[in-house]
Specification:
8 strands; about 350 residues; Ferritin; alpha+beta; 17 helices; 3 domains; DNA polymerase, domain 1
Length: about 350
C-alpha cells in the first residue's frame, strides 16, 4: 500500500468507528433500515458544506439517534457536525459540482459520492429498495455488511492468523538457533521477514473488521491482541538486527518500505532483500549475515534500551557480545559490574535454552 492508500484506509477506519454498533449514529441507521426507509446523512464542517446546500430547515439541535431518525424521514439530506454533537439542518438539497465523476446510478448515491469527493465530509446513503448502507469517504465507497457476516469473516481470519503465528514462532525459533550458532544466511532472514509481514497484514485486516464491529468486536479484539502479543516488537528488532544502514536509512524507513510492498512483491525474495539493503543477485542469499544483537538482548529482563544500544555500538554484533567477558561488558557506559554479570549469565541461559529446544 502506498502512503495515500494507507492514509485513506486510516480515514475509513475512523469513520467506521463512528458508525459502528453501539454508537448513536449506528442506532439511527438501524432504525432507518428497520422501517425500510431511505436517507442521506452528511457528517462534516457546516462552513465547508454551506456552498453546496440549498433549502431545507435550520435545526441546530443536539445530536441524538431518535432525532436523526425522525429528521431523516424527510426527502432531503440531514447535515450533522463532524464531531456528531449537533444536527445542523434537515431536508437539505445538496448541489455538488456535477462535473465530478460518479459511477453511481441512483440520484441519492450519486450525490453522496460527489459530496464526499468535493468536501472533507463523509456521507451515508441508505438505500430504501436495497436496504443497504453505503459510506462515501473521499473517493472511497464502502458498504456496511450485517454483523453476523463480518463476525464470521473475522473468525475465519483469526483462524488463519493463528496458523501463521504458529509458523512464525517456529521460524523465529529456527532463527534463534542459527544466531546462537553464528550460521544465519540472508535467505533465512528474508524468509522470517516475509512471514512476519504476512502476519502483520492479516492482523491489520482483522483490526479493520474490529472497527466495523464496534461493541460486537470486543471478543475478536481480545483474541487478536493475544495472537499478536510480542510480534510487533520482535519484527522491529529483527529489522534493526539485519538491515543495512544505506543513505542514513532507519529501521522505521525499512518497515515503511516493506509495508508498501504489494502481495506479489512480498513473496519476492530479491525485492525483500533490497528493502533490507542487500543486492547482488541469487548468490547473495547464501551469504552469512550476523545479527547486531538487538532481538536476543531484548529477551533479557530489566535491560534498558539505551544499554542495549550501547552494547551493540561497542561490540557491533551478537557474536562479539556473547564472547565478551563480564569485565569487557562492564566497560560499556551504563552497564556496571552487577548488570555485566547478569547480561553474561542471561545470554548463556538463553543460548542453552535455544539449543535444548532445537533438539526437542
Amino acid at each position: 500500500m502506498d502512503c495515500k492508500r494507507v492514509s485513506q484506509r486510516e480515514r475509513l477506519v475512523e469513520v467506521l468507528k463512528m458508525v459502528a454498533p453501539g454508537t448513536e449514529l449506528r442506532e439511527a441507521v438501524d432504525r432507518i433500515l428497520q422501517i425500510g426507509s431511505g436517507a442521506l446523512i452528511v457528517v462534516g464542517d457546516i462552513s465547508e458544506l454551506k456552498p453546496i446546500m440549498s433549502g431545507g430547515f435550520n435545526i441546530n439541535c443536539e445530536f441524538t439517534a431518535p432525532r436523526l431518525f425522525e429528521l431523516s424521514k424527510m426527502d432531503g439530506a440531514v447535515v450533522v457536525s463532524h464531531d456528531l454533537k449537533f444536527i445542523y439542518s434537515a431536508n437539505v438539497h445538496l448541489v455538488p459540482d456535477p462535473r465530478i465523476p460518479s459511477n453511481e446510478a441512483g440520484m441519492r448515491h450519486r450525490t453522496a459520492e460527489r459530496v464526499a469527493k468535493q468536501t472533507s465530509a463523509f456521507v451515508l446513503a441508505i438505500s430504501e429498495k436495497m436496504r443497504t448502507v453505503s459510506i462515501y469517504v473521499d473517493d472511497m465507497h464502502f458498504t456496511l455488511e450485517n454483523i453476523p457476516l463480518v463476525l464470521a469473516r473475522a473468525d475465519q481470519a483469526l483462524q488463519t492468523l493463528s496458523r501463521y503465528r504458529m509458523r512464525l514462532d517456529k521460524e523465529f525459533n529456527h532463527l534463534n538457533t542459527l544466531e546462537i550458532e553464528d550460521m544465519v544466511t540472508l535467505r533465512d532472514v528474508v524468509k522470517v521477514v516475509e512471514r512476519v509481514e504476512m502476519v502483520m497484514r492479516i492482523a491489520d485486516e482483522i483490526s479493520f473488521q474490529v472497527s466495523e464491529l464496534g461493541k460486537d468486536g470486543r471478543l475478536v479484539s481480545l483474541q487478536l491482541g493475544e495472537l499478536m502479543a510480542g510480534v510487533e516488537k520482535a519484527r522491529f528488532m529483527l529489522i534493526k538486527d539485519y538491515y543495512v544502514a544505506l543513505d542514513e536509512r532507519t529501521p522505521e524507513m525499512v518497515l515503511h518500505e516493506l509495508e508498501n510492498l504489494s502481495a506479489e512483491e512480498l513473496v519476492d525474495d530479491e525485492r525483500v532483500a533490497r528493502a533490507l539493503g542487500y543486492s547482488g543477485g541469487e548468490e547473495v542469499f547464501n551469504k552469512l549475515v550476523r545479527p547486531k544483537g538487538y532481538r536476543i538482548l531484548s529477551m533479557l529482563p530489566r535491560i534498558p534500551t539505551v544499554v542495549i544500544n550501547k552494547l551493540v555500538e561497542r561490540f557491533e554484533n551478537l557474536k562479539n557480545i556473547m564472547k565478551a567477558s563480564p569485565a569487557l561488558l562492564d566497560e560499556v557506559d551504563g552497564v556496571g559490574e552487577r548488570r555485566a554479570h547478569a547480561i553474561k549469565s542471561g545470554l548463556e541461559h538463553i543460548a542453552e535454552s535455544i539449543i535444548m529446544e532445537s533438539h526437542t
